[in-house]
Amino acid sequence: MNPRAYSEHRPLDARITLAHGSGGRAMHDLIEQLFVCSFGNDLLVPSEDQARIALSNLTAKGDRLALTTDSYVITPLFFPGGDIGALAVAGTVNDLAVGGARPLYLTCSMIIEEGLPVADLRRIVASMQATAAMAGVCIVTGDTKVVPRGAADRLFVNTAGVGAIPRGVDIRSDRARPGDVVLINGHIGDHGAAIVDARGELALDMDVRSDCQPLGGLVAAMLEACPDIHCMRDATRGGVATVLNELARASACAIRLREDTLPIRDVVRGVCELLGLDPLYLANEGKLVAIVPPEYADTVLAAMRAHPSGRHSCMIGDVTAEPQGSVRMDTRFGGERAMNMLIGDQLPRIC
pTM of the prediction? Predict the structure, then answer.
């Protein structure tokens, strides 16, 4: 973003036009009136071509830099419990947080299709700022592009995030050890079920909302309870089963789940049975799985349940030695089920 200040602004058009991406007056008005006004902070307002961040702001909070990026292409843009803007901020913040980093700064780039209502864009930008404020991060720089009708699906959002990892924190995907305990911070599959409902293609009548939320505060509370958390991931695309497969393979160990402990809402379970889906593979946007040493399991679980984002946290399994790289589930009927890596995706355009 690099707008120039004008003493007067023309009212924005009702819909995005190609002129809003041309580099001229219309684009600068859009940037100033929507993005700068909403995201305004000391790093963004100077409107340089880059955000200039004092290194002392980072080193005061950790000894390593964490950097992540993601793109969001969800259909529909608005859904029960969130929208593409909240999703972009929460998703990027969570990718930093589950590595043990304290999220600090975000970038925001938007590819906007010609014809998008400006009111929709304004609502999305406001949602991004509200979620950023909730997460304690600043959106400090970005970019805007407008493409002709049909060249995009209304709006694509790309975000990058920067954070600092405190000294002594070493959360990695290859640190799970036999005997460790697997924790999750609440109900599984809410986001995927909410998107099914929001698309309105199946005439379902469900009362379920996306779990879209930033998890930095929850992770901070968990690390205070146990600075030596071994592994942590947010269970987005591919769901809990896919994330656990990734951790089992990276750590050359096995993970065993207990079906009777899995926190799944009845409505989510019902829609999965109706459509032939598996809630363990549904996307989540506010859920993390953590693998912790057994001696800290109760302490971390108590800390999670004391946080608003972890009230329904529970233990769902443990780590074993064999068979390496596998995830298996003890079913409520006394059997065993292999939870293999998902091939493809159960639902398109989920995040």
Answer: 0.93
